[in-house]
Specification:
It contains 4 helices and 10 strands. It is of the alpha+beta class. This is C-type lectin domain-containing protein.
Length: about 260
């Protein structure tokens, strides 16, 4: 665009030098006798709009470059400000999370200390409270048991009687507990215990707990006749037997 203007400018200058404007009434063209003198004013007058246009064009180009530069600088500043804002926000969030973590941890330590202290006080209180044991129960090992000799009952009735006393038919936690009870019961007497066979042919406790210990006689359980679903104690060993026999039973106390 700029090259075209220069070319046109040169063309006008050359025309002014070579030709003059005729002063005749026919307005015809004539060759100037003194081109430099005769053309100076008229040529300058003719070229003045071109100078103005060229100057304006240069100013516009300069203005466009300035605007582009300003926009680029503004975008760079905005980008830098945004990056700084994000970094500051992330730092602030990290600090808040650290404070929150420390507060939660401190609160947890306080609660844990309070729970431990409360548990210790409750344990001390329970140990200092007098134990109310229902009639017929005695402490054997770490728990209370009732050995019932004179009330022969079938297995379901024996369990119901133990429930009325505050417990269940006895199921032993370990061998020491089993041996402690087996040593004090009368020999050659059969007692119902708190185990029975379920629908999956597995023995479970009547209280719904998993079986933790059983001490079977050799060859037991054999489920003779297909109807021996309850467990008895006889001479320090366990046997499976029919649940409809009326025999003695042993209760365990669950409320103490």
């Amino acid at each position: 665009m700029c090259g075209l203007r220069i070319y046109f400018l040169c063309l006008v200058v050359a025309s002014c030098i070579l030709f003059g404007v005729s002063h005749s009434t026919n307005e015809s063209f004539a060759v100037l006798s003194d081109a430099p003198k005769q053309c100076s004013d008229s040529c300058l007058a003719a070229l003045h709009p071109l100078y103005d246009q060229n100057a304006k064009s240069g100013q516009q180009e300069h203005s466009q470059e300035a605007i582009v530069k300003i926009i680029a600088e503004s975008q760079a500043e905005q980008k830098e400000a945004m990056v700084k804002l994000i970094a500051d926000s992330q730092t602030e969030q990290k600090e808040l999370l650290n404070h929150y973590y420390l507060d939660v941890r401190e609160l947890w330590n306080v609660l844990a200390g309070n729970l431990t202290s409360t548990a210790s006080r409750l344990e001390s209180t329970l140990q200092s409270m007098p134990v109310t044991v229902p009639p017929g129960f005695q402490k054997i090992g770490s728990r209370y048991f009732s050995i019932v000799y004179n009330e022969g009952k079938i297995w379901t009735d024996a369990e119901e009687t133990c429930r009325e006393k505050g417990g269940h038919l006895a199921a032993f936690r370990n061998e020491d507990e089993f041996e402690a009870v087996a040593r004090i019961v009368e020999k050659y007497t059969v007692f119902w215990l708190g185990y029975h066979r379920n629908s999956e042919d597995e023995f479970v406790t009547v209280a719904g707990n998993e079986v933790s210990f059983m001490k079977w006689q050799s060859g037991e359980p054999n489920n003779f006749g297909g109807n021996q679903h309850c467990v008895v104690l006889f001479n320090s060993r366990m046997y499976d037997g029919k649940c409809d026999h009326a025999i003695s039973f042993i209760c365990q106390l669950d409320t103490v």
